[in-house]
Amino acid sequence: MRGPVQGLQNLCHRLIFRAMTNTLLSLGHGYSARALAELLLPQGWRILGTTRTPEKAEALAKTGIEPVLWEEEALKAALAQSTHLLVSAGPGPDGDPSLNLIGDAIAAHAPNLYWAGYLSTTGVYGDHHGAWVDETTPLTPGTERGMQRVEAEAAWGAITGLPLHVFRLAGIYGPGRGPFAKVRAGKARQIIKRGQVFSRIHVDDIARVLAASIERPNPGAVYNVCDNDPAPPQDVIAHAAQLLQLPEPPKVDFAKAELTDMARSFYAESKRVSNERIKNELGVELLYPDYHAGLAALLRDESP
């Protein structure tokens, strides 16, 4: 009888927490987390967002977010109040910053959490020479950042009892992160590398995917978060110029392009990322299924 009894206890526990005020603790409250907060706050959610300085805490509070200083005791107290957890803070050479600071506390408070999400990257798949990948594709990262993400995913997945969902994000764009500023300033270039394609995702669609997962929890699930149209990066730049009715930016061969080490590393990998799982399992209908729709929306939003 232990199995049925335990199952009933777990059900009762979930119902109790669903009856509580939904409270999301956002570790590393950045660009994507802010987009999710804009969806959840009107629904009556409490959002606890981390910050490292009192000045930034004041700015957070003005947006309806309850600021939590990035220090151990404050984070433990916030965790104890939370029904949901979103981890945006990325790993570095020293590992995952959230786990380094409060990993033990997260494990201790896991029964209080109904849902947890970790924002990873499609960089964990490595280079596939333009071929398609999905969530079942083996992880073969070719960059240090990709390797760190694989390690972080595994570390979060090792926390016993944590209802973890992993979201592998493609290249993120949205308000303040579009190509228009560079095109207008005449600084944009079409970097040409034969066979190079990237997947991308509008930040508002990231928020929709996260919200859909919160509504349909499936602990242990992994989701690719990208749009329907992997495309060469130069096509995006050229289309942005066309929308602005400006001359097409000059084309530069990748081998001769002046790029930062970070920018050059993005061109080390080429793949097309499948998003079928977010559509089939979560029922997500993307607002911006390709960069044409996404860039058009950004330009409309810029208009007075």
From TrEMBL:
One Pfam family named in its UniProt record: Epimerase
Coiled-coil ranges (or none): none
UniProt domain NAD-dependent epimerase/dehydratase: residue ranges: 29-226
Record-annotated membrane-spanning stretches: none
Protein keywords: NAD
Entry superkingdom: Bacteria
InterPro entries: Epimerase_deHydtase (IPR001509), NAD(P)-bd_dom_sf (IPR036291)
Name of this protein: Nucleoside-diphosphate-sugar epimerase
